[in-house]
């Protein structure tokens, strides 16, 4: 054939004493017939054989970069890397009929797969379906997700997404067909067992809504249902006849006993409620507003409010309520002979027309739905921001946002400076020191001094500005957005963030109708306290 060149294989810097007598591995450089090379198992499945320029180059100039092979037990050459070059050369031929080959020792399967993925993953041509196949092969060999990421230099979220898709046949088939990206397929895979959830994701995709946001809402709703069910089971364990959420939904009416009266028109004593025929317990959520401990009058006697003061956030708690679902069987009557509806919609507002009452109910439902949507969006947004602030360089337009925040002395940045950037610590994954005023000064200095180049310093400052804004956001933000909210969110959108429907309110966009009845499971229909949910 041609000359054979042998070179000693690289050896570790430190060789164990008991290995000193082992034969040193050698590498050979040969020119081989491509048709005689055995094509071993490879993570690449799509060779793009129709690439005319590539085929023409091989035929006219041959293979310029050596492929990598090893000898098997029968002395045959088995391909490790260079599948596309080898297959094309065998099909169209080369000027000499041979291709250059580097002969190495036979690797372990995990090393082979990892090396093939490293070779291909960082070329634009490798498909996401092939990434999934490679990750799956490594996982089947017992390689952990962390090690897969390390071996292949694929970021951990992509590895996790690929592993999720390997366990969901429908989503994987859609990825293979090109109907879904890997990120989308991972989301669909998570909910593949739930047809209703898949339908909501399909609607979000069809209307170009953010899939990550819709997925987070599905997770939060599932967690809420699980918590509700756990509370039902807890009360049942105490011996109470508790209705499940399904039983409440199927009931024609669910009437609070406290709002009913006896045949004589008298309210029934609370201790008698459990004895009412057909009496059951419904678990509802009621809003609790913590007492305001802030003293409007400061120590110096002035009435000026502390600009850093923030009222405590209201929260919901479970409340067991005695109800009946069959008024006739209960022996009780509707108070005053009215409609008998004991839902939150039965307001006592004097002189309120039905249209006004319905408008009030609709607004309440909107507030409840948007509050939940904002909480879900916050999870997605902060995950995205954690990745964003880890960038090495700032995106286009960063300097203008930084300048505006610093020169105008925006309140969010001033507050972050006073409190040592707590949200920046959170987004960077750094434990925030606490325990004394000014805690975190040294850590802030480390973050600042680490940014030793102009690009790094700009990005770090941008991260501080964006984190400061994020720290001031909450459920109040969508209800009363300001110009700075729109300014920052617009910048994030320009830099790749896809906002949810409720976040788009900050941009002045009209909210689109929801794809589901957001008030269906919030207890609104049977909880008068929901009137104050806003």
TrEMBL record:
Superkingdom as given in the UniProt entry: Bacteria
Ranges of Acidic residues composition bias in the record: 291-311, 346-357
InterPro entries, sorted: Chromosome_partition/occlusion (IPR050336), ParB/Sulfiredoxin_sf (IPR036086), ParB_N (IPR003115)
Residues in ParB-like N-terminal domain copies: 30-121
Region entry Disordered, spans: 1-20, 291-315, 333-364, 507-534
Organism: Nocardioides daphniae
Biased composition (Low complexity): 7-20
Pfam families reported in the protein's UniProt record: ParB_N (PF02195)
UniProt name for this protein: Nuclease
GO biological process, one term: chromosome segregation
Annotated Gene3D superfamilies: 1.10.10.2830, 3.90.1530.30
GO CC aspect terms: chromosome
């Amino acid at each position: 054939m041609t000359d054979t060149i042998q070179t000693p294989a690289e050896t570790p810097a430190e060789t164990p004493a008991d290995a000193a007598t082992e034969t040193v591995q050698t590498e050979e450089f040969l020119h081989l017939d491509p048709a005689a090379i055995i094509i071993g198992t490879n993570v690449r499945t799509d060779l793009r054989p129709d690439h005319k320029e590539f085929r023409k180059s091989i035929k006219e100039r041959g293979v310029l970069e050596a492929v990598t092979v090893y000898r098997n037990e029968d002395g045959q050459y088995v391909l490790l890397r260079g599948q596309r070059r080898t297959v094309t050369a065998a099909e169209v031929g080369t000027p000499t009929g041979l291709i250059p080959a580097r002969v190495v020792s036979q690797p372990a399967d995990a090393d082979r797969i990892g090396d093939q993925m490293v070779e291909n993953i960082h070329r634009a041509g490798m498909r996401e379906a092939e990434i999934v196949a490679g990750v799956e092969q490594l996982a089947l060999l017992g390689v952990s997700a962390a090690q897969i990421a390390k071996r292949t230099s694929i970021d951990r979220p992509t590895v996790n997404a690929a592993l999720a898709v390997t366990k969901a046949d429908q989503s994987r088939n859609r990825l293979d067909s090109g109907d879904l990206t890997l990120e989308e397929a991972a989301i669909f895979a998570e909910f593949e067992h739930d047809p209703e959830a898949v339908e909501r994701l399909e609607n979000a995709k069809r209307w170009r809504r953010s899939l990550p946001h819709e997925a987070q809402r599905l997770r939060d709703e599932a967690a809420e249902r699980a918590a509700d069910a756990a509370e039902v089971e807890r009360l049942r364990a105490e011996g109470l006849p508790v209705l499940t959420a399904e039983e409440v939904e199927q009931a024609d009416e669910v009437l609070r006993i406290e709002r009913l009266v006896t045949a004589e028109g008298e309210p029934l004593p609370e201790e008698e409620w459990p004895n009412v025929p057909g009496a059951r317990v419904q678990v509802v959520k009621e809003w609790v507003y913590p007492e305001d401990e802030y003293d409007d009058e400061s120590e110096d006697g002035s009435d000026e409010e502390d600009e850093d003061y923030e009222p405590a956030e209201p929260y919901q708690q479970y409340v067991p309520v005695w109800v009946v679902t069959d008024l006739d069987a209960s022996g009780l009557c509707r108070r005053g002979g009215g409609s008998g509806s004991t839902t939150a919609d039965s307001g006592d507002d004097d002189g309120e027309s039905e249209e006004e009452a319905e408008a009030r109910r609709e607004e309440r439902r909107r507030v409840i739905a948007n509050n939940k949507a904002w909480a879900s969006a916050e999870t997605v947004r902060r995950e995205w921001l954690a990745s964003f602030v880890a960038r090495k360089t700032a995106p286009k337009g960063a300097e203008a946002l930084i300048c505006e925040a610093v020169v105008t002395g925006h309140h969010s940045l001033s507050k972050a400076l006073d409190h040592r950037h707590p949200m920046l610590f959170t987004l960077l994954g750094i434990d925030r020191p606490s325990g004394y005023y000014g805690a975190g000064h040294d850590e802030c200095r480390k973050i600042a001094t680490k940014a030793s180049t102009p690009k790094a310093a700009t990005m770090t400052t941008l991260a501080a500005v964006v984190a400061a804004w994020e720290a001031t956001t909450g459920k109040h933000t969508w209800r009363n957005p300001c110009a700075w909210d729109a300014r920052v969110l617009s910048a994030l959108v320009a830099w790749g963030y896809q906002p949810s429907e409720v976040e788009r309110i900050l941009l002045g966009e009209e909210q689109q109708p929801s794809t589901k009845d957001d008030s269906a499971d919030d207890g609104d229909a049977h909880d008068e306290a929901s009137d104050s949910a806003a």
